[in-house]
Specification:
Strand content: 15-25%
Helix content: 40-55%
Radius of gyration: 19 Å
Shape: globular
Number of strands: 9
Largest sheet: 7 strands, mixed
Distance between the termini: 42 Å
Order of helices and strands: HHHHHEHEHEHEHEEEHEEH
């Protein structure tokens, strides 16, 4: 079944040109967004709690555009299986990679911190083509071994290396000749409320994963925020902003607070582009 799904459905869709790829997304939108209304109660709840000042019509508009964007992300993730360097260079633009490359030239390891906003998958896939660090991304392996390997191979095709969450500390402790950059997606709901750092985020008390700050302080790696903006359908621009180059000197919680503030600015600028289907606030302090 895995082979059938991969070779008969995923790969043919992945090989489509842009016009046909987004035509598939439009059809999926009619099914998922209009007919099935995938996770609509959760999306509506998340939006209303995050934007209490917005009207019912404004919430519905954000929801509609979110569904369109969400289905674009689905087909773009499938495109990632077969995308070429030429195609990914056309879809993902890095605005200021020199910020990272100057640190790489000084043999400075860094932490890249971002959220599930716009196309984070393809942006991470593209970064090794222009960034001089050896890039790693932390992920949770899939239970399906077949698709875990296929997804891992796809993400690593241009030089990115995936790290299982359980192996994170080992990679910080390694002595590499080439400077490293480790990517953290830090906006997901934490598995443990005790180990979470609690902030006000999008008008709600929100627990944040604390790993990025913890490792930054322990190993004294600068922290850089990754912002991804949608320029037009299928095209994104990635920019980098230094949060701190002296993490050990920062007060406890400030790095995560600064990250949350920057992500919140991005979300408020274009609300449909965050992952509203995620049950972000399922746990409370």
């Amino acid at each position: 079944m895995n082979n059938f799904l991969y070779h008969i459905i995923i790969i043919p869709i992945s090989n489509l040109n842009n016009f046909c790829l987004y035509l598939v997304s439009d059809v999926l939108y009619l099914i998922v967004g209009k007919l099935i209304k995938y996770r609509k109660p959760l999306i509506t709840k998340n939006l209303k709690n995050s934007f209490p000042d917005k009207s019912e019509n404004e919430i519905k508009t954000i929801q509609r555009y979110f569904y369109k964007h969400f289905l674009d992300l689905i087909v773009e993730s499938l495109k990632g299986f077969t995308i070429s360097k030429k195609e990914i260079n056309r879809k993902i633009k890095l605005k200021n990679p020199d910020l990272l490359n100057i640190m790489a030239q000084k043999s400075q390891n860094i932490i890249l911190i971002g959220g599930h906003y716009n196309n984070w998958e393809m942006s991470a896939q593209k970064m090794p083509l222009e960034c001089e660090h050896e890039l790693f991304a932390i992920y949770k392996p899939l239970s399906n071994k077949f698709f875990d390997k296929k997804m891992k191979d796809s993400r690593e095709k241009f030089g990115l290396r995936m790290i299982s969450m359980k192996e994170t500390k080992n990679y910080f402790q390694k002595n590499n000749e080439k400077p490293r950059a480790i990517i953290f997606g830090s906006d997901q709901s934490p598995s443990s409320t005790k180990n979470a750092h609690w902030l006000n985020f999008l008008n709600q008390e929100s627990g944040f994963l604390f790993g990025a700050e913890k490792y930054a302080k322990e190993f004294n790696w600068p922290v850089v925020y990754v912002s991804i903006q949608k320029i037009q359908r299928g095209t994104y621009e990635v920019s980098f902003q230094l949060i701190t180059d002296k993490p050990k000197e920062e007060p406890n919680g400030k790095i995560i607070q600064d990250f949350a503030n920057l992500l919140e600015i991005d979300i408020n600028r274009n609300p449909p582009y965050w992952l509203w289907t995620h049950n972000r606030w399922k746990k409370s302090k």
